[in-house]
Amino acid sequence: MSEHLADHPALQASALRFAYPGSAATFDNISLTIRPREIVCLLGGSGCGKSTLLRVLAGLQAPSAGQISFLDAPLTEPSPRSALVFQQASLLPWLTVAGNVGFGLDFSRQPHITPAQRAQRVQQAIDAVGLAGCEGRYPAALSGGMAQRVALARALAREPELLFADEPFSALDAITRAEMQTLLVEVVHRWHSAVLLVTHDIDEAILVADRIVLMGGQPGRIVREWQVDLPQPRIAHAAAVSALRLEILAALLGERSSA
Ligand SMILES: Nc1ncnc2c1ncn2[C@@H]1O[C@H](COP(=O)(O)OP(=O)(O)O)[C@@H](O)[C@H]1O
Ligand SMILES: [Mg+2]
Known about the structure:
This protein is of the alpha/beta class. It is built from 8 helices and 10 strands. The strands form 2 sheets. It has a 6-stranded mixed β-sheet, with helices on both faces. Strands 2-1-4-5 form a 4-stranded antiparallel β-sheet, covered by helices on one side. A hairpin with a 4-residue loop joins strand 9 and strand 10. Helix 4 (115-128) crosses helix 5 (144-157) and helix 7 (202-208) packs across helix 8 (238-258). The model has no long low-confidence stretch (mean pLDDT 94). The protein binds adenosine-5'-diphosphate and magnesium ion. Magnesium ion binds at residues 50-51, 167.
């Protein structure tokens, strides 16, 4: 990527509004920019519209109003240059780990790569998530944490400019979740991907984000933002982390009581 292109946002959304048919607006007047390689956490209480916003930003659902541009082009459908990870790993049970990781590379809209490049991408992604040696296993033989590693590898294999992740670690136990948070930061840096991570977990947001965007209200909007300039690993900066945590918690509670 040239210096010039590196200055362009990966994703730029302006004045987005979304309403489910027959319902009041889920969110309104949301503008958000994600820069290349930036990890943005979208934080908010349950039901505030985070998943809906993520689906709109990923091109899975059209906004009711507003514009989205992804890599300097208007977004009208999910881009092959983005990838998604959800709370459920959603692996295909009849494919092995390697088969699942390679699965996203076979869609017709995916840029063409040779079989050798495909094999290399799959192996690199599997190695990066710590599953070397498990290539031939089937999903039924994987723990929840391992399945989420496969889902992350499947996304990485596509070399996305932007990774959309909707509460990807919420179903995992605390230790596995902490491991996955560290892994996520490490691999997206290595893959040079930007990330939009949706979470209701303040700690998760603080541990991984370059920027935290707080969503709230009815209809949902962006209430506040924090740039998190603490070096990784954040866990080594306990005092600053806990100060930020309290500040965000106060903003969340203030937001709720004023709603
Ligand atoms: N398919 C749908 N049809 C109608 N309403 C929906 C649908 N999906 C979600 N909603 C509603 O939209 C609001 C936002 O949901 P969601 O985006 O899932 O919030 P979050 O991810 O923050 O928990 C909720 O009130 C939810 O009930
Ligand atoms: Mg959600």
